Amino acid sequence: MAVNLHIIITMKKTVSIFLSMLILITACKNMDAQVPQKNPVREKMEERTILYFAPEISPYVEEIRDATYDSFFSAVTDRFSKLRNHTLLTVNTPISYENTDAELIRDMCKNNNAHFAVVPKVKFFKVGIGQFVFSSQVVVSMKLYDAEGNMLSENAYDTFRRKARVLGSAENSIKIGTNGVLKNLVKDLKKQKTIQN
After folding, report:
1. 40-65 residue pLDDT tens
2. DSSP per position, 117-170
3. pLDDT > 70 fraction of the chain, expressed in percent and rounded
4. Neighbours of 46 (CB within 10 A)
5. I need a surface site. Which of 46, 99, 118, 165 has the fewest CB within 10 A?
């Protein structure tokens, strides 16, 4: 009788373990609806290629061109290094900021498989009487276009008015201005609901 009681207790344990496993497997199978789903809109926005043209420099002086390009693209690449699934393409030729050609934007985006294009401008403040006397303050302006050549947003960042920067190098001002205008563009796009939070 004791042997039969031991077999019955072992069978009860085995049946209860089997039923527990069956319930667990069934519950896991039915939990598909509760698994967080990926947001397809968010994924689509994250997989973007953005084409940056070299900034138009105003007033144009050949001696400051390379330093301006280096500072501008350094700030842009620093900003992009924090973003995943974004591809940055650069064009080392500036295009007119005031008279931007929508067809040129469309063609460049199509040829480079870009989703957006950015047309920037860096304006230096000239001080003094000399031909090459510049202040370290700049205004960095950007226009954002979609792949069809439609302007989505335009914004500018004045390093003097925003931070009252009197001291410092022009290269650092360009980086600060570029970061500022990029933040402003993102805010504008969120207000327009062009991009998701």
Report:
1. 544 445 578 889 999 998 888 888 88
2. EEEEEEEEEE-SSSTT-EEEEEEEEEEEEETTS-EEEEEEEEHHHHH---SS-H
3. 64
4. 14
5. 99
